[in-house]
Design a protein that fits this description.
Layout: H1 2-25, H2 32-57, H3 77-99, H4 103-116, H5 121-133, H6 137-150, H7 155-167, H8 171-184, H9 189-201, H10 205-219, H11 229-243, H12 247-260, H13 265-277, H14 281-294, H15 299-308
Length: about 300
């Protein structure tokens, strides 16, 4: 119902913005063309949000019928006590399995916990993450939402909801989830990464760049190895710099990223295209040739090499 209402609201917003764009397109007021383009962009974004919300309204949770028999025990103090103890046992087992990255087994036990004890908020949160990690993003969205109704201040639930939407390419809705996570914790690195990534996927590179840069700074550990997402963050930061036409800064970012991951062809492709934009064709050819050594047949490298020849 929440998603259906959001879809209807976004559709109305799209209609209003489209009507404004049409009015401005025939207007004689100063800068009418520029204002009409902005209104058309608002209409497009609202229409995309409406589509995402309509799609989410059709999501249905995974069936838990196999565990429904757990809820049929007759009521009574002793039965309630036993169910509470069993719920805590299954919760602890499920949490341990989740930490061991045995996500399917964890999901099954955490579902059992929720049936035994529907008010177990920690179990509901971990169930949502286990559904996320097994790739059941529709169920994860529903579970994250149900957990947020009970615990609207837990920023990790907004983060999980946002990433579940990212995986389903519902980038506008993902942005709407990451923002309250960051309202509660402005330095939340995973939510910063998610918000910047959603803007990046929408081609909103000017909005993506500062968020991704902050996420990259926050992800750097004082000691030990960097997290696995650091390489992807570096790539998005570098490409965002490229797409906002800060070519020298992008070249420096790609070069740093390549030093950290010398066998990644994407960074060499980025270096080559920066050299193209800076008019440095010899350096561009060298970068594209290196990219093709690392990734034979890379189409972006082949096109860049053609342009640099």
């Amino acid at each position: 119902m929440d998603s259906a209402r959001a879809a209807a609201d976004a559709a109305r917003e799209a209609e209003q913005a489209a009507a404004e764009a049409a009015r401005l397109a025939t207007s004689s007021q100063p800068n009418a063309d520029g204002l009409a383009r902005l209104a058309a962009l608002r209409a497009r974004d609202a229409a995309e949000r409406a589509w995402e919300a309509a799609e989410e309204a059709a999501d249905r949770p995974a069936s838990i019928a196999s565990a429904s028999s757990l809820a049929t025990a007759p009521p009574g103090f002793l039965q309630d006590a036993r169910r509470s103890m069993r719920a805590e046992t299954t919760f602890n087992q499920g949490r341990a399995l989740l930490e061991a990255r045995k996500f399917r087994e964890a999901r099954d036990l955490l579902r059992e916990t929720i049936i035994l004890y529907p008010n177990h908020d920690q179990a509901r949160a971990l169930l949502a993450w286990s559904e996320y990690f097994v790739g059941d993003f529709e169920s994860a969205i529903i579970t994250f939402k149900s957990a947020l109704r009970r615990q609207p201040t837990w920023e990790g639930l907004y983060d999980g909801l946002g990433w579940s939407r990212v995986r389903l390419q519902r980038y506008h809705l993902a942005i709407a989830a990451f923002r309250p996570a960051l309202d509660r914790n402005p330095d939340y690195a995973d939510a910063l990464n998610g918000l910047g990534s959603a803007h990046f996927e929408l081609g909103q590179y000017d909005l993506a760049l500062p968020t991704l840069e902050k996420a990259l700074r926050r992800s750097r550990p004082l000691f030990g190895d960097e997290p696995v997402e650091a390489a992807a963050l570096r790539a998005k930061v570098a490409w965002s710099l490229y797409y906002v036409r800060r070519y020298r800064d992008a070249l420096a970012a790609f070069t740093r990223a390549s030093a950290a991951a010398p066998n990644d062809a994407e960074f060499q492709v980025g270096i080559g295209w920066c050299h193209i934009q800076l008019g440095q064709k010899a350096q561009a050819r060298a970068a594209f040739q290196r990219a093709l050594q690392l990734g034979p047949g890379n189409e972006a490298a082949l096109e860049g090499l053609r342009r640099a020849s």
